[in-house]
Amino acid sequence: MSDTSLRGKVAVIGIGLSAVGKVPGRSPLSLAAEAARNALADAGLQQSEVDGVLSSHAFASPFHRFSVAFSEYFGIRPTFSNTLQVSGATAATMFSVGAAAIHGGLAKVVLVVAADSLMTGLTPDLALRSLTESRDQQYEMPFGVPVANTFAMTAHRHMKEFGTTPEQLAEVAVVHRRHAARTRGAQQTTPITTADVLNSPMVTTPYRKLDCSLISDGGAAFVLTSAEHAQALGIEKPVYILGCGECYTHEHIFLMPSLTTTGAVESSQRAYAMAGYRPTDMNVAGIYDCFTGTVIMMLEDLGFCRKGEGGPFVADGQMSYGGRIPSNTHGGLLSFAHSGMPGSLFHFHEVIAQLRGQCGERQVEGAYLGLVHSLGAGFATNATTILGTRGAL
Amino acid sequence: MTVSEDSTRKPLPAPDADTAAFWRGLQHGKLLLQHCRQCHHVQYYQQATCRECGSDELEHRPATGRGKVHSFSVVHRAPGPAFKADVPYAVLLVELAEGPRMISTLIGSDPKDVTFDMDVELAFDQVSDHITLPRFRKA
Fold first, then answer.
1. Co-location of B78 and B134 in the same domain
2. A297-353, pLDDT tens digit by residue?
3. How close is the nearest chain A Cα to the Cα of B33, in Å?
């Protein structure tokens, strides 16, 4: 690895969540501040020690510069800040940009923080906007294309090309619900069966209601600093950023090069190369699960199984405990919570907690290497992060 | 960002510098594709330069209107009040005979009858004084 590689240079030293799920009467900024306080307390730092802030946009907030508004609200004056926007992949890019800023000397302690109130905080017009977000005003919106539709068309084509079945899609939802049942604060914990998914109302074929992720309130925050500073602070269980990769293949779904093989192939290969590990080395994963079919395609593109085999892989129990790659052990966007752009931060929170051995009955025994994959806008944006303990350095 | 002023009305495209000729063509019964004179790339999404080679020597030619359904999704839950009366409707990802793909919707037959790789042909749907949308019917 060259001197400029980010591998192992930056550690996550604090993690925190706000109240998550249905949280009425709270603004996105207030949720963000709660998550940030929890993350700083976890790290044992004062808020005055934060000199960098990275955030993503919140639909239920009027602020275009969320990171700047957050800093004012939180009472800090950072010297590095930005509000990033690559849809669902923003979560992972906050980690890579934060790590690069620390490694490049732009900041010493970066707070990654995002929150939104999609469930209780949106006016009807804002709710509509969030539904059609990222759809083209001239080429897509006039035809009544919901945000779910682009993802649905990729899954549909996957079924046609590889024989993926509605039952296999449903199994993804069932596994997530089973995981969420063991997660304190998860939004949906009532067990479901494959039949429940297949009998839920159709939204946009092939996706039924239970194939779709939740709409939630909530946020998460993380404290990042250099590996040296983490050591100087005496952080007991730093989790290191070992690899990062991104890939942007298109903006419009009709310009997506292939509906069934995504930019996650390249983003993950870049992350694996930086980390010096392979898919089979990973102990735990957080995989963006906006829809059930998304997970099946990502298990393939991230290298956990071969192209076209994601459906049988899931049906065979390989994405849960005892399988090849226990994934979304908190319940994911499908059952834990999905508050928009912060949604993927919950995957980071879970994977980091797993690597710190703090997941109680959800703990994947001995986990020391994990992967988080964030994506958005009909697979337009893909970003992969590989994280590991001191033992993985 | 714009917020819809009346969520019960369907959004209409607002032509811009890149798309004015394209939308004018549709009013005259032509779906105009951009053909690159340098590298012969054909593109549906209208822009000032060729996405393959960067040349600005683009020529508008009407599409034959023939295509195949590369993928589709039948919408049962409308994205807002404006589309509620239309459900279920089939959103199509059509691969045109010339190569490019585009998003549209099926008209003239039951959305249940859509299949992968089904042959479709272009149909012009005038939705306002200034806008005609390119839709598709079963060939």
1. yes
2. 999 999 999 999 999 999 999 999 999 999 999 999 999 999 998 999 999 999 999
3. 14
